[in-house]
Amino acid sequence: MKLINIGFGNMVAAERIVAIVSPESAPIKRMIQDVRDKGLLIDASFGRSTKSVVVVDSGNIVLSALTPEALAARMTNKAEEGINNG
Question: Is the pTM of this model over 0.85?
Answer without folding.
Answer: yes
